[in-house]
Amino acid sequence: MSYYRNGVLNVDGDWVYSVDACKDEYLMKYPVVIEQESLKTHIRRIVARFKDTGSVSKGKPTRRPEVSEDVVDDLRTRMEQSPKKFLSKLSLQSGVPYSTCQKIVKKKLHMHPYKISLVQELQPADFPRRVQYCHWFQANMDDNRILDLLFFSDEAWFHLSGYVNSQNFRIWSTENPHAFEETPLHAMKVGVWLAVSRRRFIGPIFFQETINAARYREHILDVFVNQLLPEELESGYFQQDGATAHTTRENLRYLEEFYDDRIIRANPECPPPSIS
User: Fold this and answer.
1) Residue 240 pLDDT more than 80?
2) Domain at 144-165+185-276, CATH homologous superfamily
3) GO terms for molecular function, please (predicted)?
């Protein structure tokens, strides 16, 4: 080895070895373009490895000890008892490092963090009403007209300047560029209302202002009712959600003038009748 081949005996009788001499011999034999300080660092590392292990070869990398089955079973029990638990809290409670918890939960327990859907809260009184409605609807499915005469309605807002999802809005860089994207304080948007039956739809009706009871009646219900056919007025049904602007006494009385008790809504006062 060049490092030991270029040693010299000092006045005290000790052998002294030079990294620089080893480097110079290497460059004479292999005249390649290489940064000299990096070469010297590499030589020192090889010499230290030889002194420690007696070999210049890299040893096998040390592996982390395998996690015991007891730890896996403990994490499985904790996740089954509290499946909404954050992995950081699981790590804190179990004393297992976060990265280890993450690997065990994904690779050994085969769990995946599924997104939870948000739905409307139901009260105890809602369940029998829903069952009652399903029975009524199923019984009337024999009459093929019901889907032709039943209008489902809904409204939604659409942003005209696009929508920025902060969860995946990222910029790749080696350093933080402190990038930003300007968004208007009051983004332009338009509201759309539509009523749909099996054979046709009424609308869309566009609006820009927040819908209150008066606007809902004057700008939406009036337009909707004036486009209904005689048989739809006589035997049809109308569904709307339970928004406050939709269910004021004035608006319900207005709808009852045309639909009587054939309105599908939240908290109905009486069950819908069959089509005669």
Assistant:
1) yes
2) Ribonuclease H-like superfamily/Ribonuclease H (3.30.420.10)
3) nucleic acid binding
